[in-house]
């Protein structure tokens, strides 16, 4: 049994990780196909007290190396939860600060951002549909990139229906290196056309 933090006991320090318990915990949510699917995921989110669209769920999926959004396989669960040393709800909740801290680490964030592309796309598609891309960008860059709301507006009115991996990777690079007033944007740089067009669109708006 897992002592909750409320009891004032140290979690993890007193109780060693148990693979057996971790597996039993998995089966609380998994269906007969040995996969945690949408229904199980909803219950899991409820139990750990996190909304499914909370960025913590994306970081957790990254830690579990989950392949598909909304699903955890038994292998992913056991491997990922073992690396986190979590075999019950309370232990995972005690890791939330650690999971959030991964977003503040530049290289971890870049890995999570890149992971999100493959995680969120339909597996038979090479690109992300634009609505999914917008939702994921909002989750990942919405709070930290000053130009995000402008870029979102641009995508809303643009002709783009999908975003490919190169565009996705470059949006992060752009958000990290180009000033909010676009003054240091290099038109001759190797940016994808999507970003060239965004800059043109924004400059026209600023001028009017």
What does this structure look like?
The chain has two domains: 19-102, Recoverin, domain 1, CATH 1.10.238; 106-207, Recoverin, domain 1, CATH 1.10.238.200. Strands 1-2 form a two-stranded antiparallel ribbon. With 208 residues, it is mostly helical. The chain has eleven helices and four strands. Mean pLDDT is 92; it is low at 3-13. The chain has helices at 19-27, 38-48, 55-64, 74-84, 89-93, 96-101, 106-120, 130-141, 148-157, 165-177, 193-207, and strands at residues 35-36, 72-73, 128-129, 162-163.
Based on the structure, what is the oligomeric state of the protein chains?
Answer: single chain
- CA radius of gyration is 20 Å
What is the global morphology? elongated
Distance between the termini: 64 Å
Total E-strand runs: 4
Poorly predicted runs are 3-13
The ordered H/E elements are HEHHEHHHHEHHEHH
- Percent strand equals under 5%
Q: What is the spatial order of strands in the main beta sheet?
A: 1-2
Largest sheet: 2 strands, antiparallel
Name the CATH homologous superfamily of the largest domain.
Answer: Cullin, PONY binding domain
| CATH third-level topology of the largest domain | Recoverin, domain 1
Please, how many helices? 11
Question: How many domains is the backbone divided into?
Answer: 2
Instruction: Please give the share of residues in helix.
Output: 55-70%
